[in-house]
Amino acid sequence: VQLVESGGGLVQAGGSLRLSCAASGSIFSINAMGWYRQAPGKERDLVAAIDSEGITYYVSSVKGRFTISRDNAKNTLYLQMNSLKYEDTAMYFCAAGKEIPFESWGQGTQVTVSS
């Protein structure tokens, strides 16, 4: 499975961004997908995930602000990020597989929130 993220950028605090992750290859092997983020000097952490039934998970710090969704017809995963905060600044990675820990990873897209 190949994953390509897009949609990152520079935004002011309080603003919004939508990340996309296009999947290709052995799509049939994907059950769940997720978004991770890694800030400089920190570990890569799970932000949100969604399975084949549409069940979602969010880390507490983004609940109510971020929404994960997937368009199976387009083989694309999304992360709508609203009310962005400075502490959301990080490299965001898309991941996919049967379950966590995911087997496939994208290259990442940078999100920078200015305070």
Structure, explained:
Helices cover 0% and strands 53% of the residues. The chain contains no helices and eleven strands. Strands 2, 4, 5, 6, 9, 10 and 11 form a seven-stranded mixed sheet that branches. The protein has a four-stranded antiparallel sheet with strand order 1-3-8-7, with no helix packed on it. The model has no long low-confidence stretch (mean pLDDT 96).
Give a quick rundown of the structure.
The chain is an all-beta fold and 115 residues long. The protein is 0% helix and 53% strand.
Please describe the structure with a list of short key phrases separated by commas or semicolons.
115 residues; mainly beta; seven-stranded mixed β-sheet; four-stranded antiparallel β-sheet; 11 strands; 0% helix; globular
Helix coverage percent: under 10%
Cα distance spanning the termini: 36 Å
Radius of gyration: 13 Å
Structural class: mainly beta
Low-confidence stretches: none
Q: How many helices does DSSP assign?
A: 0
Average residue pLDDT: 96
The main pleated sheet reads as:
7 strands, mixed
Q: Can you count the beta strands?
A: 11
- What shape does the CA trace take? globular
Reading the helices and strands in chain order gives: EEEEEEEEEEE
Strand content: over 45%
Outline the secondary-structure elements.
Layout: E1 2-6, E2 9-12, E3 17-24, E4 32-38, E5 45-50, E6 56-58, E7 66-71, E8 76-81, E9 90-97, E10 104-105, E11 109-114
Parallel strand pairs: 2-11
Antiparallel strand pairs: 1-3, 3-8, 4-5, 4-9, 5-6, 7-8, 9-10, 9-11
